[in-house]
Amino acid sequence: MSQDIYLVATISALLGVAAGIPAGSFLRRKKTSTARGAVRIGASTVSGRGAFADRAIGAGDIIERCPALEVADKDVGGELLNYVFYGNAENLRLVAMGYGMLFNHSPQPNVAYYREDSTLGAELVLYALRDIRKGEELFYNYGDDWWTTRK
Ligand SMILES: C[S@@+](CC[C@H](N)C(=O)[O-])C[C@H]1O[C@@H](n2cnc3c(N)ncnc32)[C@H](O)[C@@H]1O
C-alpha cells in the first residue's frame, strides 16, 4: 500500500516537471511587439523601434493622449534629448509618456500632435492626419530644427 502511494507521488512529481518545462519556456518567451489602444510598438521601417497602427485609424482620430511632464532643459541630456518635445518656453522640454516618444520622423507624416493643458497637467495629443491602415508605421514630422540641431 505504501509502495503504491510512493509510486503515485513519484509519477505526479514527474508529470509536474514535464508540464512545467514547456509552460516555463512559454512564459519566458520574448515578445517582439507590444500594443495598447490603437498603437503597436515593433521593429521600425526606418530605425530601431517604431509605432504602428494596430487597427485602422480614421483621419482626425485621436491616436493617443500622452500625459506629459514639462521640465527644464538642463534636466534632460544625452540620448533622452532625442526623445523629448519642445516645451512652452525656450528652456523647457516636454517628456511625453505612453508611446508618444517612440514615433519616428517622416517629412510626409501621417500623424501630428498638439498640446493640451488641464488642471492635471500637460498632455500631448497625437492624431491622424489621414486615414491610416492597420499595420502602417506612424510618423510625425520632427521639424527641420530637430535635425539641424543634431549631427
Ligand atoms: C524619438 S526616437 C524614436 C524611436 C527610436 N526609433 C527608438 O528605437 O527608440 C528618435 C530617434 O529615432 C531615430 N529616427 C527617428 N526617425 C528617423 C528617421 N526617419 N530616419 C532615421 N532615424 C530616425 C533617430 O535616431 C532619433 O534619434
Structure description:
By secondary structure, this protein is α+β, with helices and mostly antiparallel strands. The chain has 2 domains: 1-29; 34-148, Beta-clip-like (Beta Complex). 21% of the residues lie in helices and 35% in strands. It is built from 2 helices and 10 strands. It has a 5-stranded mixed sheet, with no helix packed on it. Strands 5-6-4-9-8 form a 5-stranded antiparallel sheet, with no helix packed on it. Strand 2 and strand 3 (49-53) form a beta hairpin. The longest helix has 27 residues, at 2-28. The mean pLDDT is 90. The protein binds S-adenosylmethionine (SAM).
CATH homologous superfamily label of the largest domain: SET domain
What is the tally of helical segments? 2
The counted number of beta strands is 10
Strand line-up of the largest beta sheet: 1-2-3-10-7
How would you classify the quaternary structure? Answer: single chain
Backbone structural class: alpha+beta
Distance between the termini: 79 Å
Strand fraction equals 35-45%
Low-confidence stretches are: none
CATH architecture of the largest domain: Beta Complex
The largest β sheet comes out as:
5 strands, mixed
